[in-house]
Specification:
The protein is mostly helical. The protein contains five helices and no strands. This is AraC family transcriptional regulator.
Length: 85
């Protein structure tokens, strides 16, 4: 099947409630949250989820979550430390 870009975007938004780039960004950021539990650098994580520039990844993460990936990682680690008590 051949779809125009407009038709593809319209069908995607009907199916997911999001524009295709929003859907992809959300999936990438959710994947990065799992990777942030490891000790990988932000540069490596950004590359693993499809970002060629770590700064673009950091901005996308903050826009979607309201916090930076660095603060998210620190928050997860502190929750893990305190959950053992």
């Amino acid at each position: 099947m051949n779809f125009s870009q407009y038709h593809f975007i319209r069908i995607s938004k009907q199916g997911t409630g999001e524009m295709p780039h929003e859907f992809l960004t959300r999936r990438r950021i959710n994947a990065s949250k799992k990777l942030l539990l490891q000790t990988l650098s932000l540069e490596v994580i950004a590359g693993m989820i499809g970002y060629h520039n770590v700064n673009i990844y950091i901005r996308a993460f903050k826009k979607l979550t309201g916090t930076t990936s660095h603060h998210f990682r620190r928050g997860i680690k502190s929750k893990m430390i305190y959950s053992h008590f």
